[in-house]
Amino acid sequence: xxxxxxxxxxxxxxxxxxxxxxxxxxxxxxxxxxxxxxxxxxxxxxxxxxxxxxxxxxxxxxxxxxxxxxxxxxxxxxxxxxxxxxxxxxxxxxxxxxxxxxxxxxxxxxxxxxxxxxxxxxxxxxxxxxxxxxxxxxxxxxxxxxxxxxxxxxxxxxxxxxxxxxxxxxxxxxxxxxxxxxxxxxxxxxxxxxxxxxxxxxxxxxxxxxxxxxxxxxxxxxxxxxxxxxxxxxxxxxxxxxxxxxxxxxxxxxxxxxxxxxxxxxxxxxxxxxxxxxxxxxxxxxxxxxxxxxxxxxxxxxxxxxxxxxxxxxxxxxxxxxxxxxxxxxxxxxxxxxxxxxxxxxxxxxxxxxxxxxxxxxxxxxxxxxxxxxxxxxxxxxxxxxxxxxxxxxxxxxxxxxxxxxxxxxxxxxxxxxxxxxxxxxxxxxxxxxxxxxxxxxxxxxxxxxxxxxxxxxxxxxxxxxxxxxxxxxxxxxxxxxxxxxxxxxxxxxxxxxxxxxxxxxxxxxxxxxxxxxxxxxxxxxxxxxxxxxxxxxxxxxxxxxxxxxxxxxxxxxxxxxxxxxxxxxxxxxxxxxxxxxxxxxxxxxxxxxxxxxxxxxxxxxxxxxxxxxxxxxxxxxxxxxxxxxxxxxxxxxxxxxxxxxxxxxxxxxxxxxxxxxxxxxxxxxxxxxxxxxxxxxxxxxxxxxxxxxxxxxxxxxxxx
Length: 705
Description:
The chain is mainly β. Strand 35 (638-647) and strand 36 form a beta hairpin.
């Protein structure tokens, strides 16, 4: 009787397909079991004999290099002893030589990789694929990332494709992006980042600490992270930021080489951080702010310097207003701040400014930005300035051989416009500006602003150090807080529009409209300039200027055309690696009253589309053909064209080298597709050439059994 009484495990089944369906983790392309915390999963244990009452059996879960019980990194779960560090185990049923166990991890367990082995008496059994991945759980009410709406969970956790909004406030463009959080090696890359973050086990329980660490690790600054930022226009030793269409290749390459991938700009950082957060189970969305301020001085003003032709100067300004900036919002309950600041939190992995000695940003409660509670952790002042700073315009003129600065306008409502994210369950833009700020001019906005100013500018508005101080008289009287546009005596108003479609190779036809509402005869000097600039606000070329004096009577308006010939810009456009915007700046001065007003508008070029031809549905593992068709409707040859295409669980990213496409020429590329997963899938395509950087499109297909 004696020898056979030693209980031994002969096998373990982690019941992967059943568990992953219940845990919404069946999408992960990985051999191991992936489960979410705070939710039961089942394990079938096979034994050499029947389990008896006197037998000792325990499941052991260890996390980290050297798991120990007293550190909480080794959990020893016995069916008869219910609770251990918030984990539970129970015997569901037993038959002759098998027992089915149910394990529920704590809803605030550290996320990461756990090693499982089974102890029976003195025997230890280590199964194959014994590593179990434990993630955050937005389906579990006890988890800090709990999200009540199923439609929102489907979008912010499970959707592996989406859009990132770019362009300018004047012309927003949706750029399709493949997040691909379920693709091969992506989860392993995220686990590697968790290890690299050196977060303690306790910090790994907290989505706020994890998201802050990930915002630092997605950029390569100071920690050998995923992506190296580059805004220089020279991308010879890497991939141009314009050439990515998703996060997958970036994270796979990083995981294989353990070296930063070259190169990223803000939408690439945000796309990758979105993938990482969704992959770890934290609801996440990409957020684009148009006319986003980068206020290095922390004084809520961004000074913009113009020459006397009205052209913007790069060299003088440390601060800048980016045409757009993309960061991420992650959803969680914050336990480290007062009540009322849970929900969406802004995090940003684009390396702009250091926070606590590292390039990281957030999580900053979006409600704290709206309410002006900018003293809360983390980095609320910086995010507040990004959406609320004022723009002050200065003209630099030589007076007796010295530079003098003249103020030609302040815009108080020109920063933080049309804040955008992809709508839940729909392929359209949702405007979430109201989540970040109260309506301009409302009582709440005024109160929020006064609150924010009390923390950011306790001494009132002091002139910033450096260039502009020469222009202002330094005195102790700090200016009162002016919230509205300064009302001009004449009701002077400027508008900038394009009068024809802005196609590369055509003349750029724009107009400056000057309006006056006061009765009387007015003489107005207009200075206008047109430049090409990067989305970061850095000017790349001056294309042309106008200077005119007009007479307006009473309430009236006049349109002044501004036209740029193709020769003035095509050479510059072809030689640049980045997508550029057309910047038009206008300065108006009313002679009789000395009223001054400055206005700028950025516009994007418009491009012909790519069409995708394929069936609307296809069967799993059955091949179908997908064709990409592009007709060059422009008046210029597109040189060195490349077509990048990718379809998650349909085909890997593929590049077609297309050479030069002459005006009027039609190009067609085909790819054979094999769908490997069910449901709605998307195919993304992007065309890049010397002249044009970003024509992209996407098309959905439904895969059935």
